[in-house]
Amino acid sequence: MASTKLNKPTPQLVLDLINNANTATLSTPLTFSDVGFDMPVAHTADGQGRNTTVRVYALANTYYEGEAQIDYRRLSLSDVISGDLFLVRILGMTKIADVISAINAKYMLQLGSNDYVDATLPTFTGTPGEVKVFTLTAAAGSYAFIGSVSLSLKIPLISLPGILSTKSMTGLTM
């Protein structure tokens, strides 16, 4: 399961990396009012596991100028997400975008539309206990994630003892 440290939009995760690595030279942490990012570019991991480069540039009308290229490690989705995703209401959900909020809630993430490739979900018939497998793939432009992971999407069986809390009734009346 993911750490709550990942429960931020992915560009913010990278900005936090930059700020944390540069506390000795930054008088105040950088914000998105100060800098912007180009799209991340994947490369072969170096000896430290860094597999991504991104250009950080100063925005106009700020106290900063110029640009810098930073290297860091994006995480594989399969290292962060695993297992089954249980959804009571799956009928009518046709795209991965329809289940992202459930994925974010279960794994304490904030995957946005730029972090994954939206694709069609398997078709469900509505049979109780039905299981379908789908693949969640990181978008090339995701700042924090690479790769893909297979997830089982299940319509869970609902436990009657769990939902029938009152088992002694008074009886029928006329």
What's a quick, concise take on this entry?
With 174 residues, this protein is an alpha/beta fold. The protein has helices spanning 10-21, 77-80, 100-107, 160-163, and strands at residues 35-37, 41-42, 52-58, 67-72, 75-76, 84-86, 131-137, 145-146, 148-154.
Verbal overview:
With 174 residues, this protein is of the alpha/beta class. It folds into two domains: 9-73, no CATH class; 76-157, no CATH class. The chain contains four helices and nine strands; from the N terminus they run αβββββαβαβββα. It has helices spanning 10-21, 77-80, 100-107, 160-163, and strands at residues 35-37, 41-42, 52-58, 67-72, 75-76, 84-86, 131-137, 145-146, 148-154. Strands 1, 2, 3 and 4 form a four-stranded antiparallel sheet that branches. Strands 6-9-7 form a three-stranded mixed sheet, with helices on one face. A two-stranded parallel sheet has the order 5-8. The longest helix has 12 residues, at 10-21. The radius of gyration is 22 Å and the shape is elongated. It starts with 9 loop residues before the first helix and ends in an 11-residue tail after the last helix. The mean pLDDT is 89.
**C-alpha-based Rg, rounded:** 22 Å
Report strand %.
15-25%
Structural class: alpha/beta
Q: Describe the biggest sheet?
A: 4 strands, antiparallel
What is the terminal separation in angstroms? 55 Å
Descriptive key words:
alpha/beta; 174 residues; 4 helices; 4-stranded antiparallel beta sheet; 3-stranded mixed beta sheet; 16% helix; 2 domains
Describe the protein's topology.
Blueprint: H1 10-21, E1 35-37, E2 41-42, E3 52-58, E4 67-72, E5 75-76, H2 77-80, E6 84-86, H3 100-107, E7 131-137, E8 145-146, E9 148-154, H4 160-163
Parallel strand pairs: 5-8, 6-9
Antiparallel strand pairs: 1-3, 2-3, 3-4, 7-9
